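Need residues for this backbone.
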């Protein structure tokens, strides 16, 4: 995947006088997140800060979605100057891994392709790589609870810090349209870019590794659903897991599943991803279920779900891309079964 300009900007911020090694060893913490949020707010005008700040208990904190919207909470990148945009990107980089940051910024850049493909089409939503909104909830600090989010088309990342520790990172949504850039349009990521390649390919790999009997248990519907369940709702669907349990998988299949899980946890901060993997093991990996719906090959709508006692992954690729190519438009989400947004069920 190509390196885009926002990632270069952040790399320069990291490098400073410390050199490349300092950037390679950088491991953001909740303290870094707090400091970055403070710097971001301090760099705004009074009017901008009022737009970017909300009370932690404001109901709008739970109002998330990945669809194009005319208006969202927070301050959009477009309304920031160059220095403020660097501070916003520095904050984003404290919430995710380098890989997660690269995916997020590339997703933003895909808006350029949609804008080019849909130019002149009536009724189409605004496509703009600067139409992503940053919001801070409460007062960043080492005591108490506060949070922040970055959201726009195909990206919704939500965080809560409690008493100086990262308490919640869900819902965490990444999407891509086009899922694979199939032609060069002169702007945006180049032909061949696949932001969510591993999330899709590993799902197919696990499905194809199943025996006929196992597949019969894993496939819950011949047709994929139109989209993720509970999209935009404050909590994940609280329904029993479906599909094939890990207890009925071979060692090789479990290895593929573990790699699939890593495709999601690798988007997280290193310590957070390790904690989520440890949480899955503690709850019992044998309790995980893999469910599939739709086609077993690309280009036709397909969907999968991985659910365990602690988390839920959903992947959906059913919609066409901006050029009309079928099933080339991915939605993915990681949610916490005990409760998103730092709210226990």
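Answer:
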């Amino acid at each position: 995947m190509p390196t885009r300009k926002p990632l270069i900007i952040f790399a320069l911020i990291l490098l400073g006088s410390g050199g490349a090694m300092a950037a390679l060893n950088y491991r953001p913490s909740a303290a870094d997140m707090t400091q970055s949020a403070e710097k971001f707010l301090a760099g705004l005008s009074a009017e901008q800060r009022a737009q970017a700040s909300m009370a932690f208990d404001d109901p709008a904190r739970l109002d998330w979605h990945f669809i194009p919207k005319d208006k969202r909470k927070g301050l959009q990148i477009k309304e920031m100057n160059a220095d403020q945009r660097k501070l916003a990107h520095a904050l984003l980089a404290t919430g995710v891994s380098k890989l997660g940051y690269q995916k997020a910024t590339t997703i933003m850049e895909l808006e350029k392709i949609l804008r080019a493909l849909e130019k002149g089409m009536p009724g189409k939503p605004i496509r703009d790589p600067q139409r992503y909104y940053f919001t801070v909830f409460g007062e960043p600090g080492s005591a108490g609870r506060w949070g922040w989010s970055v959201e726009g088309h195909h990206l919704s990342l939500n965080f809560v810090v409690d008493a100086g520790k990262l308490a919640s990172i869900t819902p965490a949504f990444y999407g891509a349209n086009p899922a694979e850039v199939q032609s060069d349009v002169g702007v945006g990521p180049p032909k061949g870019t696949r932001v969510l390649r591993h999330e899709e390919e590993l799902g197919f790999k696990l499905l194809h590794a199943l025996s006929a009997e196992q597949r019969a248990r894993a496939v819950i519907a011949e047709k994929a659903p139109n989209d993720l369940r509970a999209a935009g709702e404050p909590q994940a669907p609280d329904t029993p897991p479906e599909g094939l349990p890990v207890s009925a998988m071979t060692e090789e299949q479990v290895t593929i599943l573990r790699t699939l899980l890593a495709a999601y946890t690798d988007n997280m901060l290193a310590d957070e991803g390790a904690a989520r993997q440890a949480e899955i093991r503690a709850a019992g990996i044998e309790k995980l279920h893999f469910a599939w719906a739709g086609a077993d090959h690309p280009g036709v709508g397909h969907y999968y779900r991985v659910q365990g006692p602690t988390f839920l992954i959903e992947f959906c690729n059913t919609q066409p891309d901006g050029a009309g190519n079928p099933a080339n438009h991915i939605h993915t989400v990681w949610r916490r079964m005990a409760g998103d947004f730092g709210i226990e069920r």
